[in-house]
Amino acid sequence: MNEWREETDAIIDELLNDGSNPDSEYTIEHHFACVKFDKLEKLAVDLFKADFEVTDAEEVELEDGSIIFCFDASRDGTLDAERITREIESLLPLCEKYGVDYDGWGTYFEE
């Protein structure tokens, strides 16, 4: 979990150092991937029930030719590292339950 805290702090610092508005509301997108679509779909249902906005799954071909499926789940909120870290902490057990990889989070620059 320490790695996710450090990454969260780094993402927020980069945004703010680039001039993103610290008082804006941001769409925080959490990224998920799995080789088995059915497992990813089960996670998506749970996240939808937990009030996340869930995107449609996409099929992605990797450099080695293998296929993975991925989607994002998002919520709006401030750039509060503790809040985002708590979200990650709540998502990781669900990922483990379904055998889905958590692939980090991101957001967009806000004026």
UniProtKB/TrEMBL annotation:
Pfam families: RraB (PF06877). Keywords: Cytoplasm. Residues 6-107 form the Regulator of ribonuclease activity B domain. It is found in: Cytoplasm. It comes from the Bacteria. Gene3D superfamilies: RraB-like (3.30.70.970). Belongs to the RraB family. Globally modulates RNA abundance by binding to RNase E (Rne) and regulating its endonucleolytic activity. Can modulate Rne action in a substrate-dependent manner by altering the composition of the degradosome. Interacts with the C-terminal region of Rne. This is Regulator of ribonuclease activity B. It comes from Pseudaeromonas sharmana. The lineage of its organism: Bacteria, Pseudomonadati, Pseudomonadota, Gammaproteobacteria, Aeromonadales. The gene is rraB.
